[in-house]
Each structure stands twice: as structure tokens, then as C-alpha cells.
Amino acid sequence: MPETTLNIASAWEAIADTIGDNTALTAAGEHTSWSKFDQRAAALAATMESHGLGPDAKVALYLYNGVEYSEAQYAAFKVRAVPANVNYRYLEEELAYILNNADAEALFFDHTLVEHVEAARRHCPQLKVAIQVGGETCPEWAVSYEQAVQATPMQRIERTGEDLWFLYTGGTTGMPKAVMWNHSNLWGSMTATFRPYKTLPPVTPKEAAEIALRVASQGKEIRQLCAAPLMHGTSGLSGLATLSHGGSLTTLTERSFDANELWDTIEQERITMVSIVGDAFAKPMVDALDKTQDRGEPRDLSSLRMVLSSGVMFSAPVKERLLAHVDLLVVDTLGSSEGTGMAAQVSSRSAQRSGTAKFSLGEHTRVFNDQGKEVVPGSGEKGQLALGFPLPQGYYKDPEKTEKAFPTVNGRRWSIPGDYATVDEEGTITLLGRGSACINTGGEKVYPEEVEEALKALPAVRDCNVVGLDDERWGQAVTAVVELEANALQSGDSESILRQEVRSTLAGFKVPKRIVVVERIERSPNGKTDYRWAKETAQAAVGTTDD
Predict the structure, then answer these.
(1) Whole-model pTM?
(2) 3-state SS class at 271
(3) What is the tens place of the pLDDT at every residue in 156-188?
(4) Which domain holds residue 509?
(5) Pairing outcome for strands 129-133 and 143-144
(6) 541 and 474, same structural domain?
(7) Cis omega before residue 139 (within 30°)?
(8) pLDDT digits over 442-471, tens only?
């Protein structure tokens, strides 16, 4: 695509000027127009500017989903600052780590998180302003969000596509790292969103406005429900793309995921696309539809055209259950904070795809072996996924890890975050998982996702995590932490039954040596696996048993 220097804020300003009466944001049935979105963001920008923030200042977003997340992010873009996502489950030490790692000068936070902010801010001397969203009272050291949006809106300025957006990794295998995306490469990540409109992403504000006007006049804009958190890449990146063609973002109001609220909102707001994170969201969604169907209360889901998922396994049986209820596209994408659009699997009623974790490679994706050569399709050789475009700048303040994750191979820079895969004869890949989570058992390598896939295919298994525990005989023992479906396998012999069933699909060395049954699998708010929790839970359970 053409090289662009377009800043996202400048594009959104042009869109607001052109389709100002159209809806940009929705929450709890309240609609924010594009004009109001722009005005409120400009007021927040003025508040930040009055506290000394300007180009390249870092702005941390410690927020739940809601209109405030998008407004604060837009405000940061306006002053040429750098928005940085913060997991709202982080406590004092984790929050202080992110704020200091990002060199954050501003912090937007939800009022329910005030105690963590109060404790963390003492360790963050670079913080110039904290803006509290919601709450009846505001601490003296913070600014009320509602007060901040009353400021005289900031005047518009010239900007560049080199401005940054931070996407912090989940930190499942180490401390979270900020992946630096500039606006130019963010536009590159939006290519798939603009393709159905027979255009590339815009390169000027005027072009952005023209595309938005054309799309809106045809009634084809995306109305996206961000079920996954905006602080996670799945909703965060796709939400940027939706707004950048003049679409709208809707968020849920419940702090924990409520599938019935999701379906209610889809009906009420005539949502066209939902962004979720794999089975962690999809299973409750289809369970809720099953129940409404059993009650003879069908929903009107005719507006819904796509379910977009990324980040966690979206198993084939769950996709099939969803498609039985709704005729739409299920777009299961493979990517990471370090690179989006590596691969995808698109399923529909007319073109179903079999299997789980099987994807078609994206245009700019390759699979390299450890010698830097492309894996031969059908060879069975394992290799690492590599993305050539679009690419982030690297990790903030970490040149060593940047060089490792974004190496130059055959004269071209690639993003190689560590995901292993095999390539079949047709060019379809089977994802094996992140090498850092690989289990070495008896000299054999086992990827947790492969074992999790086999377990999740069993009717009795609702969710699971697979980890490696130290073992004198095997080096590491494959160990599964499993959540069962209600009323499944109550005999007390569930471990042997599950091991026997999974043995029919996996080689013997991949079958879990032990299975620990828990009431509920703990996941991060973005639905991703919490391998630390899983390993601690498995160790605690196995430590009480005899070998």
C-alpha cells in the first residue's frame, strides 16, 4: 500500500467534520455523535496540555470499556501523545511498573481503581496528572473526568504519522513490554477493513473524510461491539480501524462478561460486528443462545455479519454451534501485539472449515525454520511464524529484545514473536503455540495449545490449560488443569477417562501425565491463558499426591 504519513487524530477530525451527526460511540443505550466525540476529546486534550503534556508524552489508560476509553485515546492522539493500555486487573506494584516503564505523564483511571492508583502514584514522580472516570468524589490529587471535558477545546494542530501508540503485551511469560506502533503502520494493519470498500486506507485527512462519507451514505459502516476489552489488541486494533472509516464502537456496561447483555445489545444497536477472544467468550455466547432457543424466544440477529476473534483458541465445535444459530462470517485471526494479520480462518455456513488452530497464511506471512529458511509445505517440519508487514518499531526501551523479536532474515525485517507452526501441502498452517511455553518431556517437545485443543474437543471439557511441571523421570510432565462441563464425569475417575479419550487423538508422550480438575479456569480479562496461575494450581494439586 502507499506509504502514508497520516495521523489518526487528523483523519478522525476530518471524519467528524463530514459526518458529525452520525454515531461514533455507544454505551448503555447512550449515543455519542462524531461531533461530540471530537469536541470532548479536544477538551480532554486541552486539560492534558494545561498540565504540560505534548508530543511524545505517554498517557496510560487504566480503564474498563466505555466511551471514556476511546475519548481519552483520541485526546492523546490530538496532543501528539502516546496512549498506553494498562490491564485493569493490575494491582499497585504492577500498575507502578507499567507507569514507570512507559514514562507515563498522564493517567486516566476508573474510580473503582483509585486505591491502586493512590498507592502506585507515590512511586511515579514523572506523573503530571491523573484523571478519574466516574465516582461521586474525586481525590484532591486527581482531576474529575467530567471537569476535564468541560475545558475549552484545544485548537487543532499539524501532526505526523510517526506519532506512536503503545500496545503492552500480556506478560504471560515475562514482564509486560510496550510494543511501539506508529500511526503509519497502524494504517497498514487496517487494510483488511478497507478492502470491502474497494479502497486502501486513506493517506490524507480529506481522503479519510471522503471514504467515511461514501461508506455512511451507503449504510455500510461497521457498527462494532467490543466485547473483548479495548485495552487488549483484539478490540483495540480493530476498534481503531472501525472508527477510521467512520464506523461506531459500542461497549457493554457489565464489568464481567454477560452473554445475555451482549445479545441484547446486538439486537438494540443493530450491531454488524462483534470482537471477542476465542472460546472464553464464544462458549457463554452459544450457551445463552441455546437457552433462548429452548424457551422459544428467538432473537433478531439479522444485522450481525461478522464475529472477529483473536488471541485465544476458538475451537471448531463452538464455531459450528454459533453458525447453527446465526448466519455470519466467523473470522478467527492469528496475530500478536508484535504483528497483526499473520493468518486467518474464515468459517461460514456455506464454507465451513474443519479443525481448530488451522489458518491460511496472510499475504506477508512466512514460516521459517531455525536456519532462516522457509518451511517446505507438507514436510512436517516445525517453524516460526514471521510477519513482514505491517511492523511496529519494536519494544519501548528494550533494543535487545527488539533485535531478537524483529530480526532481519534474507535482507528483510520481520516480526517473529515465537509462535511455532507446521505447514501442510495446501499451505495451511497448524498453530503449535509459543516456543517459550513449550514443554520438553522425555526429549520430546509438546506445545500446550495442541494438547488443549484435544482436551477441548471432548464433550466433558469446558476449558483447560496445559503446563509442564518438573519431573525426575521426564524432565517435565505434561499436566492439564481442566474445568468440566456441569454434571460431567462425576464418577471421581475423571482423570483416567479424559486421558483415555484424548489418547485416541494424541501421541502417547503428549497425553497429560496428570489432570487436575478445578471449578473454574482463571483467565485474564482479555480471555487469554494465565499460565502462571495454571502452573501454580497444578503444582499445588500435584504436590499433595503421590507419584
Answers:
(1) 0.87
(2) coil
(3) 999 999 999 999 987 544 578 999 999 999 999
(4) 438-547
(5) parallel
(6) yes
(7) no
(8) 777 788 888 998 899 899 999 999 999 988
